[in-house]
Amino acid sequence: MQKHFITIGLFVLLALITVLAQAGVLSPYHVSVLMFMGVNIILASSLNLVNGYMGEFSCGHGGFMCVGAYVSAVCSVLMFSKNQILGAPLLPPSLALLGFPLSLLAGSAAAAVAGLVVAVPSFKTRGDYLAIITLAANYIVISAINNMEIIGGPRGFMGMNATEVAMKGLADIPWVLMWVMAGTVFTVWLLRRFVSSTLGKGVPAICQDEIAAEIMSVDTNRMKLIAFMLSSGLAGLAGGLYAQILGYVNPQSFDIMRSTEVMVMVYLGGMGSLSGATLSAILFTVLMEALRFLGVWKWVVIPLLLILLMQFRPEGIMGNKELSDLFPKLRKYYSFK
Amino acid sequence: MPLLEINGLTRRFGGLIAVNDFNIELGEHELVALIGPNGAGKTTVFNLISGFYQPSEGSIRFKGRDTRGLRPNRVTSLGVARTFQGIRLWGEMHVLDNIRIAQHYRLGYSLLDSFLRTKNYVTREKAIDAIAWELLEAMDLKDCAFELPRNLPYGVQRRVEIARAMSVKPSLLLLDEPAAGLNSSDVEGLIKLVRWIYDSYPVTIWMIEHQMKVVMSLCSRIKVIDFGATIADGAPEEIQKNPTVIKAYLGDDTI
Fold first, then answer.
1. How many A×B Cβ pairs under 8 Å?
2. CA of A254 to nearest chain B CA: how many angstroms apart?
3. Is the residue at B238 inside a domain?
4. Does a structural domain hold residue B255?
5. Nearest by CB: A217 against B77, B88, B90
6. pLDDT tens, A126-146?
7. pLDDT (tens digit per residue) in B171-229
8. Within a 10 A sphere around the Cβ of B20, how many other Cβ atoms?
């Protein structure tokens, strides 16, 4: 019973949020902040797999998010919306609850494949050089989409709202919020299971001593492939959800600024800590909203906070510890394995 | 069929010949030493065997199988484990995890199994755990199972590294200067440990070592190399009297 306490508590909380959103207690603004929080948790925890657990410096996470966002959005529009170029909807609105997760899946799969652009060079390249490759990957994605007129080029792409309308037609509940929460729980669940398995521990082994890992029978190429593809695939999921929340995407929202934002979340939380990445994504989202009154000065205060953090706690809030390491009493309720 | 058969092994780094026409044949269950002055190419031989370098010429056959072109993790999964001259443990993971991860080549479950925690995953992880604990117990490391390696004394780290290599269940164990940096009581412990491993497991141990005390009290056969070339090969008593070896170590007496 105690082992399931956290799980039950989490589901009660999420159900409560859904009910409150439905009842209108949470304003649309609050709901949208909660949804962006979810997207940020997915982004930070997935990037943490590469930058934290594997110790590589990937600074092109926005690019993979972009691939996921566009592929999901295009699938979603193809299925449920009338578009001048892409034509009439392929599916009736009643299939929206099946079609939408499929579009998310397509986006994640496409982003995971795009992850190969970084994963394959990573077999031979490390550190700073790989970081440059990830940066290039980000630019490749943005430039490619900027030049694809069929999906709007730099003007962006829209029409995904039809999917939400179709879902609302089936039952009038906050669907997008629920999908975001489901995606977030799924991501953390998946990553936690991976990093706590002996298979997944091959990833930090590469970070801590790659030569030892190779000699002690860890297939480093396979581990890198898994880590990069899992990480970019989940970024694609975040992208798909993001596209659906806004109902509009344009390439500029996935440029290096976005990648930097995700990196800040990872380093704030602590490299190689799943609970750290999750907490810092929550903290970061709240901070961004709380400092909104500062206007442009927000972008002075937040980097300044980062400088202070690096000065006084360079390992991040949690270091590479999990919550259950810092508060052993929590082990009664959940163990990290 | 010999366990390990090396013929005409040569490795060049640019103009430097690190290993030159190296030959050896090791059978099952032997305890052999490879010695030689600094820079003789000993570690290069180990790096070539474990697949870390590729030979320029010559062949390496392990259990009759040509290992050239195999990546290090593949060579290890054939049954070659090794330790390093400077200890290379994963410092941020506790000792138990260090020993678990070295069993990567026989995990026996897929990525999907690890996500879904299937029955297969649970049984395999239990087996991996059991092997790890058995080794920790046997090597008297049980008490530090949850310590980080970097917090342990040097001698204990050495033992953890040997335990990690043993968790591969090797038929050939390569020890690269296991006594380096150990104090005399740790060296005694090391000699006992290597002897115990040799007596309890069906493993051939091949070690590079500078401390003659370790070599002479453990090994039944010694191979001496200098500047990449073999200068002597035989029982410890012969090696001690061999004039070429004495010359390589102490220099010519006609100065």
1. 91
2. 29
3. yes
4. no
5. B77
6. 889 999 999 999 999 999 999
7. 999 999 999 989 999 999 999 999 999 999 999 999 999 999 999 999 999 999 988 88
8. 19
* Class of residue B28 by CB neighbours under 10 A (exposed 0-12, middle 13-18, buried 19+): middle
B73 and A217 in contact by Cβ < 8 A?
yes
The answer to the question of residue B52 being in a domain is: yes
For range B149-177, the mean pLDDT: 95
Position A88 in a domain: yes
Residue whose C-alpha is closest to residue B157's, from B147, B168, B166: B147
Are A154 and A252 a contacting pair, CB within 8 Å?
Answer: yes
What range does the domain containing B52 cover?
4-250
Is A62 a member of any domain? yes
- Span A239-256, mean pLDDT? 95
Looking at residue A1, its pLDDT comes to 57
H helix intervals, A88-199: 96-114, 116-119, 127-146, 161-170, 175-195
CA distance, residue A204 to nearest chain B CA (Å):
8
Domain of residue A125 covers 2-332
Across the interface, whether the CB atoms of A216 and B102 are under 8 A apart is answered yes
Cβ-nearest to A226 among B92, B105, B111 = B111
* Nearest of B50, B49, B46 to residue B33 by alpha carbon: B46
Residue A337 forms part of a structural domain: no
Is the per-residue pLDDT at B82 higher than 90? yes
Q: Give B244 to chain A, closest Cα distance, Å.
A: 34
- Please count the structural domains in chain B: 1
Residues of B in contact with A220 (CB under 8 A): 73
Do A217 and B117 make contact, defined as CB atoms within 8 angstroms? no
Q: What is the dihedral of CA B41, B46, B50, B53, to 10 degrees?
A: -10
CA distance A328 to chain B (A): 14
Whether A209 is covered by a domain: the verdict is yes
- In tens, the pLDDT along A154-211 reads 999 998 999 999 999 999 999 999 999 999 999 999 999 999 999 999 999 999 999 9
Q: Are A212 and B84 in contact (CB under 8 A)?
A: yes
CATH at A43: 1.10.3470
Residue B30 in domain: yes
Residue B17 maps to which CATH number? 3.40.50.300
